[in-house]
Amino acid sequence: MTVPAVAILQNQVRLSGRTRVVCEVIQLLNELDIVPDLLTFTPPTVGRHIGRFFGLEYLRFNHIQVAPIPFVRGALWQVLAINWLTRARHGCYDLVFNSNDALQGLNSAANYLHYVYYPLLTGADLARVQEFHLRFFYSKICAWILVHSGEALLNDTVYTISEFSKNALLQTFPGLSGKVSVCYPPSFNGEISCHADRMQRCMSVGSFIPDKNQMDQLAIASQLPEIEFWIVGSVRSQSYFHACKGFIRRTGVRNVYLKTDMPFDELQSALRGSIFFLHTMKDEHFGMSTVEAIAAGCIPIVHDSGGQREVVPFEDLRFNRMEQAVEIFHSLVKMAPGQISEIRQALQQHIQPFSRDAFRGRMRKALQEKLVI
Length: 373
Known about the structure:
Elements: E1 6-9, H1 17-31, E2 37-40, H2 44-47, E3 62-65, H3 75-90, E4 95-98, E5 112-116, H4 123-129, H5 136-148, E6 158-160, H6 163-172, E7 180-182, E8 199-205, H7 214-222, E9 228-233, H8 238-251, E10 256-260, H9 264-272, E11 274-279, H10 288-295, E12 299-303, H11 308-311, E13 318-319, H12 322-334, H13 337-350, H14 356-371
Parallel strand pairs: 1-2, 1-4, 2-3, 4-5, 5-6, 6-7, 8-9, 8-11, 9-10, 11-12, 12-13
Helix pairs in contact: 1-14, 3-5, 4-5, 7-8, 7-12
């Protein structure tokens, strides 16, 4: 029997939830005796070893750098560009797993399995971006690539990471009605930590970029000196990371520690030893790090928007303003240990559909159906 040829489209692979999904898909394909091609802009020196950060050290795949891109910023144009640059070869594969968010710039003759986190900007959205002077030329380039990439492919079944993302996808592409299914990402390995002996510490996990709003976390932490804050993430924006460090220097806040590129095992240990988790991004598409923190036994305090509403079902743990977040912390600190344990257990029961096993079962079936094996 001929082994199917499979490619994975991912503009950049780095320490992120999206890359974790790609690694899980590679492992599923390996279990089917398939060694996929990973088409990316990331250099092999980085991409070949990315699995070790997620505890998946023995992944088998062919790392193919499509073009040397010396920077990781500008995801919008990169997603469009990699589709456009590689689409001629897509038809040579039995299946292309599209991990980018663009349904444009693809090959109508190829077989795709799309896993969409959030729909790529439409032409109308790009026009609005052009109103901001500093991003005018960037949006012009993206709009040009989008126009020349062709129509979006709306014939395939599409998977997305949350109900929030599904609704956004259907608003962008009404023609996908009935073709979009939610497959929650593999956000924890199934293990649950329930022990109550924890430090008065709050964790946050996310790349250092403005969208993740670590500056808000610093402002919240400055009002809660009795709680230690660990802000963990990879540095995707040096200027933003330096702004965060500048805030700490200016205000003299002493209960915050910025930790970059923390190894997976160390992060898990830190989460299991902390009582709180803070996530400040608005309209987060899902929130894998929040699920991971809940599994580790942390009580999450999250922004009341996006996919975080699906992850954290209790309104009392969600906020819209920083002042509300501080009030939630004060309320939780005053709770008896038994009350905290009840909240922890309820949250951990809620996240069972977000486990690694649930994702693997759903995605293995999808891969087998698309490959007809």
